[in-house]
Design a protein that fits this description.
- Helix 6 packs across helix 7.
- By secondary structure, the chain is mostly beta strands.
- The longest helix is centred in the last third of the chain and has 14 residues, at 706-719.
- It is built from ten helices and 40 strands.
- The chain is elongated and about 95 Å long.
- It has a 16-stranded antiparallel β-sheet that branches. Strands 26, 28, 29, 31, 35, 36, 37, 38, 39 and 40 form a ten-stranded mixed β-sheet that branches.
- The structure holds fe (ii) ion.
- The site of fe (ii) ion has 4 residues, from loops.
Amino acid sequence: MVPRKVIAGYADALSIAAGESLDVKVSVEADVESYRCDIVRLICTDEHREGPGLVEEVIDSPVNRSWPARRQSIHVGSYAAVPEMPALGSFTAQAWIWPTRLGAPQTIVAQGSALAMELDESGALALALGGERFASGRPLLEREWAFVAASYDAGSGAVRLIQSPMRHYPGFDSRADRRFHARPGQRFEGELRIAARGAAPDAMSRHYNGKIDRPRIAGRALERAEMDLLAEVAPPAALAGDIVGFWDFARETPGARIVDLSGGERHGVLVNLPARAMTGFNWSGDTGDWRVAPEQYGAIHFHDDDLYDAGWETDIRFDSDPALPSGVYAARLVVPGAPPEHVVFFVRPEPGARGSDVCYLAPTASYLAYGNYRVMDCGPVYEAFQGRLLVAGPEDLFLNEHPEYGDSLYGEHSDGSGICYSSRLRPIVNLRPNSPLWIFGGDGYLTWWLERFGYRADVVTDEDLHEQGQALLEGYRCVVTGNHPEYWSREMWDAMKAWLDGGGRLMYLGGNGFYWRIAFSEAYPGAIEVRRAEDGTRAWEAQPGEYHMSFNGELGGMWRRGDRTPNQLTGVGFTAQGFDRGTYYVRRPGSFDARASWIFEGVGADERIGDFGFADGASGQEIDRYDAALGSPPHALVLATSEGHNDNMLLSCEEFKSTHMMLGGTENPKVRSDMVFFEIPGGGAVFSTGSISWIASLAWGDGDNNVSRITRNVLERFRDPAPFPDLPQE
Ligand SMILES: [Fe+2]
């Protein structure tokens, strides 16, 4: 019997500087009055029976005590709220819509509690008016644009419902224009909602799934031709006195506000981060960049399971000591008999107060991207990947019972569209000890190893690097990555590149790194965005025309499809993945070159490197290879290459060409990890292992092994300010 997880929490930050405070928010789902909190420093975060186990050290703090338990809930589903609305008598409500999940009643636009233009359970347009209900009786089609309108004349009580799909098909004609009679003289008051109804964030219902474009409200029952005018991109002068709301979703695309052009300043706010920069009903296909043709990107895609900020109350405020060493920490929360919760946070050094010449860049963007990854939703695929049956832990079962905690950037919304935003303002139950080796759990072997060999590395996060840029890395001799630094913003990349060009030294100890482009947002602190565009080994595909990110307009997708490749930065790039077992490396001629032979001091010429480890072997899970054609520097030395992969290690799809049909590790020569080293003019250097599993071998045999030896040799040399010898310039 797996013990049930009953406690979850998150904090207002993932990274604090020593001396800053952290607000921890907790929910307990058990009938207990209290739980215990202890602040711990996390040193090893994987409990493999042959490894160091869970190593954590309690930090003295007044918050280390018992706290009263309470339950806090999460309210998912995105919508827009417009607080300032005049009362309506006669009206017209209209929009272009692209519904994606018909079958449940859902709101397109609603005012107060008495007026709602909706889709009913059949998928037909409906109008709720006072206590009365009217419906077109003709279901719309999913993923087809349709113009919909509802009008009411308060004088006569005349109601009209119009459905005008962009396309119609034999047997699937969803056109409708129906007239009804309602009680005359009604007035409607209250705030306006788009894509849901309800008065308060914790009391929303009837969420809409799909896109809405050009929602409009007029203060009288318009004629059909007037509705067309109102659906124009700018407010028509002919209707000047009648327009109540004229929201243009193409304005302020990166933000959380919707802009009203009616002149009445009826701007609204978006709740729970619906997808913006979405193609509108009028997208021509001629451009994929919303910045080029904003009028074609007037749609917002709402989902009934969107989530940005869980909005929990703070339970524990932890004031960190200014002398607290930089490191990986957690608020450990314990209810007896249940698995402990660790609310993980990172303590970075105060600016200018470096504590080490080595800096561990914790891949928190990857942790966010994989945040609340749901193995139970992808059971058979997961089993094929792993080559073994799915094992679900307490966190997986908990997520299964709690869809409202949100999914990862690998999941899909309830309507099947890909999840392109992830936020840390919610409990992330797999950012914990014993999470998979390819995320936080595995990186504990690196922090353990750094500790074991006396390197008190400072710790900074991806988000810190994004915000502070190159200045964050200044003064460090060497930056060490985690096992899976997959998600990079342009700002992060620029900072790393500039620091390397200034003499920095990077140890890329992972695989599948520098792979997806992401964006951060000023409007949504703590959130990241990805667009899984066109190509790449990806869990879902962005819709055509929706490859540019809403947060900053940049083209999303793989870095290698843009102006830079991981190979340029690290010497290697993603080539294959497979999760059933790892394998070893063998030395290549480059490892005997005088430029790099010091890396192999203490390692025999024929020694297998990493034929051990907590992921079975040092090359595995996701692996990268040297490829000059993809930008690996020609002077980079290939030091070692993995061999012995099996056919569960599969070539990445972006590498697949129709001329080679062999995909697996036993046949395809591209399925391999390459370990590389190269110098950068100016004193910098890069060492890359090209494998997620490398770090999981570091701690094998108490750290006495050749993976550890090689890593130490590199780290010692990279800490040494002595320049690398100039390369001959023949
Ligand atoms: Fe990955």
